[in-house]
């Protein structure tokens, strides 16, 4: 189907369907990460601040398998429980 052959309403419906599919995919990804318990997530900057280390060190921890990153909607996030494990 070519965009040029669509009416305005068909194009709008197509865009809505794609957005809804992307939202559903994001919800599914979150549900996989949060099976039964609510979790809090931190950004790289947040983790670096909590642990008093640089963002470069966070990237090294990920490469070494010390921290597991989660990509959610294009953002790199870390579960609070995984960060807390480093402080114990």
Task: Outline the structure in words.
The protein is mainly alpha-helical and 88 residues long. The chain has 2 domains: 1-37; 39-88, Multidrug-efflux Transporter Regulator, Chain: A, Domain 2, CATH 1.10.1660.10. Helix content is 59%, strand content 11%. It contains 4 helices and 3 strands. It is elongated and about 60 Å long. The N and C termini lie far apart (56 Å).
SSE order, one letter for each helix or strand:
HEHHEEH
Principal-axis shape: elongated
Q: Which stretches are low in confidence, meaning pLDDT under 50 for 5 or more residues running?
A: none
Query: What is the CATH C level class of the largest domain, in words?
Result: Mainly Alpha
Report the strand count.
3
Distance between the termini: 56 Å
Strand content: 5-15%
Query: Total number of helical segments?
Result: 4
Q: Return the CATH topology of the largest domain.
A: Multidrug-efflux Transporter Regulator, Chain: A, Domain 2
The assigned structural class equals: mainly alpha
Count structural domains: 2
* Average residue-wise pLDDT: 85
Second-tier CATH architecture of the largest domain = Orthogonal Bundle
**Multimeric organization:** single chain
What is the gyration radius calculated from CA atoms? 19 Å
Helical proportion, percent range: 55-70%
Biggest sheet descriptor: 3 strands, antiparallel
Lateral arrangement of strands in the main beta sheet = 1-3-2
